[in-house]
Amino acid sequence: MAKVKNWQLGREMHYPYEESHPEWQFAAVFNINRCIACQTCTMACKSTWTFSKGQEHMWWNNVETKPYGGYPQGWDVKTLKLLDKADPGGMQWKDGRYTGKTLFEAAAGREKVLGYLPTDEEWRYPNLGEDVSTRYEGGGLGISKEGASLPEHKSWFFYLQRLCNHCSYPACLAACPRKAIYKRKEDGIVLVDQERCRGYRKCMEACPYKKTMHNTETRVTEKCIGCYPRIEGREPLTGGVPTETRCMTACVGQIRLQGLVPIDPKTGDWREQRDNPLYYLVRVAKVALPLYPQFGTEPNIYYIPPRWVPRPYLRQMFGPGVDAAIEAYSNPSRELLAVMNLFRKERKIVFRYAIEEGPKVYERTIRGRKFTMYDDTVVGYGRDGQEIVRVKIEEPMHVRSRERSNAV
Questions:
Q1: pLDDT at 368
Q2: % residues pLDDT > 90 (the chain)
Q3: At 311, which helix (H) or strand (E)?
Q4: CATH topology of domain 2-330
Q5: Distance spanning both ends of the chain, measured CA to CA
Q6: Residue 322: its H or E element
Q7: In the chain, what are the domain boundaries?
Q8: Among 5, 115, 131, 233, which is disulfide-ready with 206 (CB 3.0 to 4.6 Å)?
Q9: Strand order from edge to edge, sheet including 301-304
Q10: Average pLDDT of the chain?
Q11: Is the pTM of this model over 0.90?
Q12: pLDDT interval class at 125 (50, 70, 90)
């Protein structure tokens, strides 16, 4: 195995292949706090890509209720148990550095990645455990009789939005004996060459997020393709410019922001570009975190953690940055509040943003800290530098005139 740098772990790790990175990386940030689990994203993906025979069980995008939901059933719990068994008590962090073994390092002998193959039964129920909370006494709708208050609720659940993470070090790619899986140089999207694939399902076994799926009709693997025609700018409705994926643009709760970040060819890391909204949210504000970074795949889908969930659960899921991320989100800086307003305001991908300062409109104290809101304007620009969206922090109020009423 080669040694590669994994910035999410804060160290180098072992991986079956040498370092190789794209020019740009497909990435996204999801704000869990705003998701209402309407499944509009799920159905947008389903109706676009997986409506054919043999794809009935395929949900490339899904929203599951944690802690009890999962598709396939128990995908994360089972992987965590495998890793703990291979490296007992090893999943630990020290000063932001992961000291345990990854799925690649914990793999035994002939296997390149530690994993398991889900049973057919585990693929049957994509909405299992939906809206099921942890145990409560009295009250209703999952609320304890003592009521609910931040920072942690006694009874809780939350929605986790999932699709292929288009990892920097994909476990599916590492495990494929046919080398049928590859990562595109232009945007880092992970794809399956279905002419090379023979349906061995090694990728399904290796992927810790279980986002590669077997087509029972064609006998080959399929997975989320990152809507690459839209990323390439082949969506006619947006004028031939890079466009967000179907699941992103369909989001009713405006919880998603998808884009591309430039990669430094020398280091393989994200190139510093502070005015790229994704770079800012992940690397500057550090409000968005990867899903199970201890697996070692360096996923490129990031999450703003839910505020009301017990912190130990969230630290296991998103790593040691949870407390700082929740604090930053709960009392956002002037810049963070502006960037958050870019979520789902435009189908075209925002490559750069700028903030035009406005007057102070609001001030109060939040948990002992002063919070001031300004009516700034955040402007988003496309790849060609053209302005594509302009949003004010304060939402305008429109009063209809009597002349425009519906009365006849």
A1: 84
A2: 87
A3: helix 311-318
A4: Alpha-Beta Plaits (3.30.70)
A5: 76
A6: helix 322-330
A7: 2-330
A8: 115
A9: 256-262, 24-31, 301-304, 289-290
A10: 94
A11: yes
A12: very high
